[in-house]
Amino acid sequence: MELKPLHITGALLIDGDTPRPGSLLVVDGRIAALDPAELPDGTETVDAKGQWLAPGIIDLGVFATDKPAFHFGGITRAALMPDNGPLDGAGLVERAAKGGKPDLWVHPLAAATKGLAGKELAEIGLMKQAGARAIATGRARIADSGVMRRVLAYAASLGLVTIIHAEDEGLTAGAVATDGEMATRLGLASAPAIAEAIAIARDLALVEETGAPVHFRQVTTARGLDLIRAAKAKGLPVLCGITPAHLLLSDTAIGDFRTFARLSPPLRSEDDRHACLAAIADGTIDILASGHDPRGPEDKRLPFAEAQPGMAGAETLLALGLGLVRDGHISPGRLFELLATTPACLLGVDAGSLAVGKEADLILVDEGTPWQVDAKKMAAWAGNTPFDGMPVQGRATMMWKGGLRIR
């Protein structure tokens, strides 16, 4: 099917810190010009009517390919965690990469070790050839430092980033909450927040040793963020991410044993939450991701300690990110660096910004439209959100994938 050139007019372009009036031309699925002086014959025009025109969101580290939820949330590419399967072989990676075509890119993250058991290196080179864009330790870290060192060195030799879960399992085994007043009041097995910093410190020492690039998928504590800040100041190749839940909720949200607020890592103290907001404002945190992990009633309608951790986050990611802009923590431009530009760089994909030559993965955003999060009406195949009932503002109204309109 031949793609007509596309001219999006009357938009506020997100190609700097603040949205600016302008237009954008797409030819052959790529961004051909910003504010073009002339148009090719047969160009189709779309009037954005003053909405933001932004790069499509690249959601780094989802646990399920959930196309309706991604389309609702303005997500054009999703990097799939290796846990379901697990994705530890070339055939599995190749199949996962085809999971969203033609109107969604799924970028599989290869399992770092066979069966994600943390013992033997998986066939990382073959999985890269099959389409893996990075490797990941999965829902847990690799406890054996020798194995982790080999993973980092091998991944780096292939030009791949290692995506790490940072919690020390010796401290967190059996725990379902963070040590503190709330866990004590509810009588829940808990672990100290320092479990995160201890895991990060070990892996940063290995990064210094190997020079391998890493991304800590979720850093949620002040001590963990201080370590990341210091590593970046040293020039180490380190990135870190967070989900909106750890920016907007603290462990008080698990009161009444609310299993929708049972997450991994668990929600932290109010002090840690404020440290996370400061870290997203000062640039320490590089990526904002949904942590999309839809879980049905069989996983959530259980006593708190038996419920599975995870939340359906794809549909609320953009709206909650826009809330950070409205509250003055970040600029609109910085929001889309967190949601699109930096994830694109990490994965090595030619998208993630409104730059000439990039793939035309685009979303129109009505940043002011109000709506209410409703777990029962979500497009995701399970609506386990800790934000159920929360009023939010802003949603994607139109999407293009490689210049092709998909919504």
How would you sum up this structure, described in words?
The protein has 407 residues and is α/β, with parallel strands linked by helices. Helices cover 30% and strands 23% of the residues. The chain contains 13 helices and 18 strands. It has helices at residues 67-73, 90-97, 124-129, 145-157, 169-172, 181-186, 194-210, 222-233, 244-248, 270-282, 297-300, 317-326, 332-347, and strands spanning 6-13, 20-27, 30-34, 44-47, 52-55, 57-62, 75-80, 105-111, 134-136, 162-164, 177-178, 190-191, 214-216, 238-242, 287-288, 362-372, 391-401, 404-405. Strands 1, 2, 3, 4, 5, 16, 17 and 18 form an eight-stranded mixed sheet that branches. An eight-stranded parallel sheet has the order 6-7-8-9-10-13-14-15. A two-stranded parallel sheet has the order 11-12. Helix 4 (145-157) packs across helix 7 (194-210). It is globular. The relative contact order is 0.16. The model has no long low-confidence stretch (mean pLDDT 96).
